[in-house]
Amino acid sequence: MEKILGKQVGSGGTSNVYEWGDTEVIKIYKPHIEDNVIDNEMHIGQLLNRFLLNIPKYMGSIDYYGKRALIYERICGKIMAEPLLAGIYETELAYKFAQMHYDIHNKSLDELPSQYDFLKRRILELKSILGNKAAPLINLLDNIPSDNKLCHGDYQPLNIIGEDNKYIVIDWNGACSGNPILDVAWSYMTLNSPIIKLLLGAFVSEIFANFAKDYLSYYCNLSGITQEHILMCLPIVASRRLYDNIMCDNDNSRQEREWLFRLIEKT
Question: Which residues neighbour 165 within 8 Å (Cβ) at sequence distance 6 or greater?
Fold first, then answer.
């Protein structure tokens, strides 16, 4: 029996996700997303399927109105961000978030795309916008020790689903092999974005900021990495975020750019 598109269960800057049959979801990309981006995510999904990771399995792809759509195992439950979005926060949630991220980083996967190559490419692609900041950013990136740890690429509580405190991390399309401090810096930056205040108000924004502060503290205690080493990476991940915003130009992304430029200025 042919499967039909079910209700929408997720949305982002690059795609919308819908139920697909009883046990799967389908990721349908927005028109501006190029085929090589989809091919890269498919390649990452195939690689991750080879390892014993507690993540949604990549199931394959189909042609959907002339564009490839990707199919994944469906994960049921509520997003970890749900209490935060409701203005409820207990520090145990930040500890769980940090512990899960630390556990991810304890795995090494050389076959995944290089985090260093990806970030350097983003900086070079923004060279005309970054101006005299491009060279210091690359120098900062060059001075971060190379590593081959599994990094999620967009680890945040919106990308974690679970029930009864048993969580699974989803959206691994940005997975790479690299240094965990850059992965943590991205998460910390994302949790402090001014877009949260713009969309959800000052109270929820403060909840997210407290969650981010505790997450960073817990992660550093678990890993032995200093907060200073992670915070010094913010200009690098801000340049990556700036690239994403320019590629997905809308009112929200434009509101965030001034803040990103201020982070980059700290290089």
Answer: 96
Residue 206 neighbours by CB under 8 Å, 6+ apart: none
> Using CA atoms, how far apart are residues 74 and 110, in angstroms rounded to an integer?
27
**123 and 171 both lie in a single domain:** yes
Take residue 195 and report the two structure tokens written for it.
């877009």
Entry pTM: 0.94
Q: For 26-83, what is each residue's pLDDT tens digit?
A: 999 988 888 999 999 999 999 999 988 999 999 999 998 888 999 999 999 999 999 9
Residue 45 · residue 70 · CB < 8 Å: yes
Please check whether residue 222 is in contact with residue 98, taking contact to mean a CB–CB distance below 8 angstroms: yes
Print the domain residue range for 58: 5-73
- Token pair of 47 as six digits: 């690689």
